[in-house]
Design goal:
Largest sheet: none
Order of helices and strands: HHHHHHHHHHHHH
Number of helices: 13
Strand content: under 5%
Helix content: over 70%
Mean pLDDT: 77
Low-confidence stretches: none
Number of domains: 2
Structural class: mainly alpha
Distance between the termini: 37 Å
Number of strands: 0
Radius of gyration: 30 Å
Length: 387
């Protein structure tokens, strides 16, 4: 078989492959609704497994930390077998303890704040009801309040509640069903995460065998390397994000103590936990914190917002890029770009995943650029020698 025949076969394969891809793209674009429905159905079917895989990635960070430090030099086979289960239990216990601690700090105070606001509104309505029309008209917006048909509003509200009673019950039952389904999916995801974590070496070997067996050698080697880089970057991202959240929560708590603001430990812990969503996550805790402080001292709520604005600028422009840039090999400016684009595409989840994804792409592009430069330099040297 001559070289021309082999080249003809390769060209034919390339043409057939290109034509097939073009036809599939055309059919996909033409039937976009069907494709979107199929993708949504498959994603819903696999969502517990996908969620379990992300659980495994997150739990693997503290689990790997404890595995490296529990009996590192032991030769006892029993201790070796116990190392991973013990590490998993400790990691899960630490995460659950943090969640329970935050809930224990936040929920009671939040309930108290809502009760204070509700009681204030009830008292205000009672005071307004007890006042005569002359006294009420002398209040700011008093004439506007007198012109409102309160009885008509209450009657309309009662009629609406009566008409919507069936819809409200259906919504309540659907909500309960969704919660039960969500709890079931959560446990399925957790069980899948356990299987992944306890058999990660076996899964890694099987995946490498499949890639080497079914993909071209060059592409397979690149894909395995890219997955390794992504795994390292994600692990460093989780550890770096945890450190950054602790720093932000601690600074928030100390600043609130200095400014004599209420709820300092609770708000600091809440701001730190919500900071796991990069750049803007701390504002979720800020809204709750400002609301709770407002129930005690409205002026201090304004002071808290100003303080958090300053702290957020310090954290977003100095602390976060420094902490994360040193861990995920991504310059600070590209972290800000990644978070902005990721948030625009997929909201909070996009912000959370944009940094490790961008870091992986940055590392792979840098390696490819270095390899390209070396190849061009070698070609240049070869030409110079030929002259």
């Amino acid at each position: 078989m001559g070289p021309n025949t082999e080249q003809g076969k390769n060209l034919s394969k390339w043409l057939i492959g290109t034509a097939t891809v073009c036809i599939l793209i055309y059919l996909g674009v033409k039937n976009m609704n069907v494709v979107a429905g199929a993708v949504s159905w498959v994603a819903g079917l696999l969502s517990p497994l996908i969620l379990g895989f992300f659980f495994a990635l997150i739990l693997n960070v503290p689990m790997r930390f404890f595995e490296m430090r529990l009996w590192p030099r032991t030769e006892n086979p029993t201790l070796k077998k116990l190392r991973r289960p013990v590490s998993f239990i400790i990691s899960l216990a630490v995460i659950l303890a943090v969640i329970v601690g935050i809930v224990w700090l936040v929920i009671p105070e939040l309930v108290n704040a809502v009760m204070v606001i509700s009681q204030s509104i009830i008292d205000l309505i009672g005071d307004l009801t007890a006042m005569d029309q002359q006294a009420l008209s002398e209040l700011p917006f008093g004439k506007a309040l007198l012109s409102i048909d309160w009885e008509g509003i209450i009657s309309s509200l009662q009629t609406w509640l009566k008409d919507q009673g069936g819809t409200i019950m259906d919504t309540a039952f659907n909500t309960i069903g969704s919660i039960v389904g969500g709890v079931f999916s959560f446990f399925i995801s957790l069980i899948f995460a356990v299987y992944v974590l306890f058999g990660k070496e076996t899964l890694k070997k099987q995946t490498i065998r499949l890639i080497n067996a079914w993909f071209p050698k060059k592409f397979g080697a690149w894909f395995i390397h890219a997955a390794s880089v992504a795994n390292t970057n994600f692990r460093n991202f989780v550890s770096g994000q945890t450190l950054e959240a602790v720093i932000l929560g601690f600074l928030c708590m100390v600043g609130m103590f200095i400014l004599r603001l209420p709820y300092a430990p609770m708000v600091g812990a809440l701001v730190g936990v919500t900071a796991f969503i990069p750049i803007v996550g701390a504002w979720i805790g800020a809204i709750v914190g400002a609301f709770m402080i407002f129930t005690i001292a409205p002026v201090k709520a304004v002071i808290f917002i100003i303080f958090l604005l300053v702290l957020q600028q310090l954290e977003g422009n100095i602390i976060y890029p420094k902490v994360m840039g040193s861990r995920v090999n991504l310059p600070g400016i590209w972290i800000l770009v990644a978070v902005t684009i990721g948030g625009s595409i997929a909201g909070p989840l996009g912000m959370l995943l944009s940094v490790p994804i961008s870091s992986t792409a940055y590392v792979l592009l840098r390696e490819a650029t270095q390899a390209r430069e070396q190849m061009l330099a070698l070609e240049s040297d070869t030409k110079d020698i030929g002259k």
